[in-house]
Structures are given as structure tokens and as C-alpha cells.
Design goal:
alpha/beta; Rossmann fold; Uridine Diphospho-n-acetylenolpyruvylglucosamine Reductase, domain 3; 2 domains; 11 helices; 11 strands
Length: about 325
């Protein structure tokens, strides 16, 4: 699918809701994806009003990263795009992995958006990125929730994380940059086979029948996830005995006979409801609680700030 400004504007209008003159932030690495996105958003705002800031994070993993950040900033400034550079503290660069760099980058930009009251943070992830993420998570044994991979809208710390390019593939983005003569930087780490994502990317570039099967599975997950979600809430509603703003009580005997994945998902939903300002639960911590539930004795426990009290017949969750 070819990227045009008109089509991009339609996607924003269809998928998202903005106030008049929105204040948005865009994650910019200097690569082709984020550069295409920041220019598309820059032109969109010319008609809709609002303001934009491009956020560049110098991850300090490669020695060239600082100069690349400066080069990208200067280029954006020449095109009247407000830009800010963050430099990751070296004590946070320990493993020097792609995952560590992504995490540092994301948390740095999220903190800035919270402090400066930017309610929208855009990322340039595209279709190929999502298939790679799906396959990586499948290899790692992710559950149904994780296999959804990236979504075009999620919320973190009351900030909307938006990915409007997920329906476009890499070639469409490269062609858009060429047509608009947008400059970008090629990150050499994208060809480093020491990173698992690069190995997956090279495998997917071969174009075999296996890739068609991977894409088929990916689309099936997207298609049937709403039904899965509905089922979870139906089960929770069935085993729920009492619910209030600060307390949820469920039937222990009904809960304990559920499949483990369903138990985990129900606890996650309860946690999100009772502890909305906290981060997501760690899988290992939930499993530890479930192991305690297998014991018939009474239990009092703390799960990331949420108080749990298990009697012989009920489990009480309190914020």
C-alpha cells in the first residue's frame, strides 16, 4: 500500500481522537520509519493546528550515536520541526542490547511526555516490525495476549502510545521518503546477526511459504482476540462475588479449576482495575501467587501493592 499524506490523514481520523490543536510527541531515531512519520505528522498539523516535538534518544551503545542524534536534530530544525535530544546515562547502559536500548528510550520519552503533559507519543513501527515481534514472541512461548504483538493504540501512564504506520510495510516507507526526498540514517546494528531480531528479519526476507503461514497465524490472532477477551470477562463475571472500587472478591473453588493462563489473565485484569497507576504485573510474581493458591491453607499476600487474602471459599483482592 502506497503512503500518501491524504491516506495518512484518513488513518489518523479513523483510528484516533484528538482535541483541537493537539500537543504531540514523536519518537525519532533518525531511521527511515521515524523520519517518514515525523514529516507526515508535521504536515498533518499544518491543517489541524497543534504542536509537535521530535524526541531523539542518544542510547550511547554505539560511538556514532551522539553525532547521528545531532545530525538528525539539525536536519529536522532546518525543516521547522522542534526537536529535543536526551542522552542515556551510562549507568543504564549495562548489557548494550537492543532490548535494553528500546526500554531506556521508551521510558525516557514517556517520562518527558508525562512531565510536559504531552498526551500522545507516536512511534514509527510498521507492518514488518509487527510480524518480527509476533514471531519473536511465538518463539519465546508468549500467551494469546502477547501474540497480539504491537497495537495501533495503547495507554501507558495516561499517555496514548500511537503507531499509525502498522498497516504499511517497510518498502512503502522507503518509497515515501524517496518521493519526498527525506533524509535518514541507516543504523548498522540492523545488520548485526548477534541480535535475535536481525536474525528473524533476515529469515522473513527470504520469502518462503513458511512466511505465509506466519502471517496467517498473526492475522488469526488479531481476528479472534476480541472473542478471547470477551470470554475472559464472562468468566470473571461468573466467579465474581463482590466488587467495589477498592475490593474484588471471587469464588476460590471456581477460580482454582480454571486453566492457568486464564487464572493469570483474571488476576491481571483485577490488578489493572484496583491498581490503575501501577505498572504491569510481572509474570513470575503472578505464578508465585498461584503456586500458593494450590495450598489449601489460608493465605495473606502482597502482589505488587495489591493485598490478597485467601480463605477456604473466597479470594479477596484489595488496593
Amino acid at each position: 500500500m502506497k503512503i500518501t499524506q491524504s491516506l495518512f490523514n484518513q488513518i489518523l481520523k479513523k483510528k484516533y481522537l484528538f482535541e483541537k490543536k493537539p500537543k504531540i510527541a514523536v519518537a525519532v531515531s533518525g531511521g527511515p520509519d521515524s523520519m517518514a512519520l515525523v514529516f507526515l505528522l508535521h504536515h498533518w498539523l499544518k491543517n489541524s493546528g497543534g504542536s509537535l516535538v521530535a524526541l531523539i534518544v542518544d542510547h550511547q551503545i554505539r560511538k556514532e550515536s551522539h553525532q547521528e542524534a545531532i545530525k538528525t536534530k539539525n536536519y529536522l530544525l532546518k525543516n521547522n520541526i522542534v526537536t529535543k535530544i536526551f542522552r542515556i546515562n551510562k549507568n543504564k547502559v549495562l548489557k548494550k542490547t537492543m532490548n535494553e536500548a528500546r526500554q531506556n528510550r521508551f521510558l525516557t520519552m514517556l517520562k518527558y511526555c508525562v512531565n510536559k503533559k504531552f498526551f500522545y507519543l507516536f512511534f514509527g513501527h510498521h507492518y514488518n516490525d509487527n510480524i518480527e515481534t509476533f514471531l519473536l514472541r511465538k518463539i519465546a512461548g508468549s500467551n494469546f495476549e502477547g501474540l497480539r504483538a504491537m497495537q495501533d493504540k495503547t495507554i501507558r501512564n495516561n499517555i496514548q502510545i500511537l503507531r499509525p504506520l502498522l498497516t504499511f510495510d517497510k518498502s512503502a516507507i522507503i518509497n515515501y521518503n524517496k518521493s519526498k526526498k527525506i533524509q535518514y540514517i541507516e543504523d548498522p546494528s540492523n545488520n548485526n546477526i548477534n541480535y535475535s531480531r536481525v536474525i528473524i528479519r533476515k529469515f522473513l526476507s527470504v520469502g518462503t511459504d513458511q512466511i505465509k503461514n506466519i502471517e496467517r497465524d498473526f492475522f488469526l490472532i488479531q481476528k479472534y482476540y476480541p472473542f478471547y477477551k470477551k470470554m475472559i470477562f464472562q468468566i470473571l463475571n461468573k466467579i465474581n462475588k463482590q466488587i467495589s472500587k477498592n475490593n474484588i472478591i471471587i469464588n476460590f473453588n471456581d477460580f482454582i479449576y480454571l486453566d492457568e493462563e486464564l487464572q493469570i489473565k483474571i488476576i491481571e485484569i483485577i490488578y489493572k482495575f484496583l491498581m490503575p497507576k501501577r505498572n504491569l504485573l510481572r509474570y513470575a510474581k503472578v505464578l508465585k501467587i498461584l503456586n500458593k493458591f494450590s495450598n489449601k491453607s489460608l493465605i495473606k499476600a502482597n502482589l505488587a501493592g495489591m493485598q490478597i487474602d485467601k480463605s477456604s471459599f473466597y479470594i479477596s483482592f484489595k488496593s
